[in-house]
Automatic annotation (TrEMBL):
The gene is rplT. Keywords: Ribonucleoprotein, Ribosomal protein, RNA-binding, rRNA-binding. SUPFAM superfamilies: Ribosomal protein L20 (SSF74731). Gene3D superfamilies: 6.10.160.10, Ribosomal protein L20. This is Large ribosomal subunit protein bL20. GO terms for cellular component: ribonucleoprotein complex; ribosome.
């Protein structure tokens, strides 16, 4: 039986990877083995960093809320504890936006929980 190869599919797979490597520097964009390694690594980073991005934003929101609360004599943990005790259900994203862009509204929240 003759040897069977599927060069059409092989070429398509390679073209797909080289297309993903478009914009890379040097041999990373046009040499198959180098481009494949570069694309694989980039995919690992993108998968990981989609999760890291969520952590970074939460940390940013907490920092902003803490700064806003300290202007009114509360720490972040005291502020969040009093929010929970008064059953005010605002998430950190909204609270951070209020603390940064709408200080009057944030002050009103602090007045309500004190």
């Amino acid at each position: 039986m003759p040897r069977s190869v599927n060069s059409v599919a092989k070429r398509a797979r390679r073209k797909k990877v080289l297309k993903q490597a478009k914009g890379y520097f040097g041999r990373r964009k046009n040499v198959w083995t180098v481009a494949k390694n570069a694309v694989d690594k980039a995919m690992q980073y993108s998968y990981r960093d989609r999760r890291v991005k969520k952590r970074n934003f939460r940390a940013l929101w907490i920092t902003r809320i803490n700064a806003g609360a300290r202007l009114h004599g509360l720490s972040y943990s005291q502020f969040m504890g009093k929010l929970k005790a008064n059953e005010i259900e605002l998430n950190r994203k909204v609270l951070a936006d209020l603390a940064m862009n709408h200080p009057d509204a944030f002050k009103a929240i602090i007045e309500k929980i004190k």
